[in-house]
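Hello,

I think I submitted the iron/sulfur cluster job twice by accident. Can you confirm which output corresponds to this input? Input:
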Amino acid sequence: MDFRSFFDNIVTGVGKKLEEKTTGRRLMAFHTARLAQRLFSGEHPVVWVNVTIPFEIINAFPVASTYAEFIGAALAGAEMAEPFIERAESEGFTTDGCSYHRALLGAFLNGVLPKPIGVISATCPCDGGLKSVAEIGRLADVPEMFLHVPLKSKDEGIAYLADQMRQMVAFMEKVTGEKFDRERFGEIIKLSNETADVLKRVYKYGEMSPTPYDGKALKNFQIVMLPLMGTDAGMQIAKQFEKEFSENAASGTPGMKNEKLRFLWIQNRIQFPNTLLDELEAKFGANIVWDELNDIYWEPIDPSDPFEGLARRLIENPLGGDLSIRIETLKKRAKQYKIDGAIHPCHWGCRQSQNVRSLLEKALNEVGVPMIALDVDCVDKRSFAPGQLTTRLEAFCEML
Ligand code: SF4
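Support: Only one job matched these inputs. Its output is below.
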């Protein structure tokens, strides 16, 4: 598997399409492939992290980086994850764990991922990410650090995590041999705040009925944006989505024909190609109007003193810490987006998905929103049973 040519081809192919017409999805694919191209170019030092590490700090250094879970999702999207998942399993990594991480570990063991100069992981959102990134550090025999994210947003917790983020800067200086540019960091934070503002406006269009976008428009959106926060590319993508949605809203153009059911998607989308949502759209006018992972829940971060703000953002991530934060967020957003029903894939091996399913269902029921739990692995399609899932989803739509 030659990932370098794979991403080179995507950059060239999507670049040509962008010359014909600029769309938010194309820009997102282009800049994500550019990021991956940089990662596999062999020309930049690489730092592997997990999904909640603040990229504003990483982006202040001349490195190529992405988060571990991105690899699992990208491999699944290209229908290439299974051989790597099998490799990880054959090395003893448990099938009870998350396949985002098994795919990553298998790819690293197969030698198709670049060796890092250092690795950084956080205890949020999950132990699996922390341990998988640490395992890569061990296999590559490079320095490793982790952020211990306290469970409550008490002041001492924020100060404690902010201090670890300052240590993260020192770690990056040590592994890269580069001096931290404080002024550049302030500019990155400023741009990250401005991008978050645009994203808030993008998500606001989801309150419209019918929604000026369809259920695929914002698939994996914010999670793909994370490494691009504080970059010109991130801002360009955000503004393009805002432009498209505002034009549709102004002209009364719905994102899909005949929207009848408004769905909330909990946590991860199914990453490999499948037709479940197309079928629901065609038969029931079902639209995903809000994804749980698309949420600017944090306040702007002070560019002159960013560490506390970055720490607060991480501590208050609804997927980490006290479950009541996640539940209250889901209930609030369900009302805000006038949700009819919630789909929870209950990604196999994810403790954030599986363990809390009945509590999420109960909470959503309290605001009049039924939830269906699918029991699907969002990355590993070996056990994917589309027939069964379609039957259950259709029954759910009929009930609604
Ligand atoms: S799906 Fe769950 S276990 Fe997997 S990376 Fe996300 S939070 Fe962690």
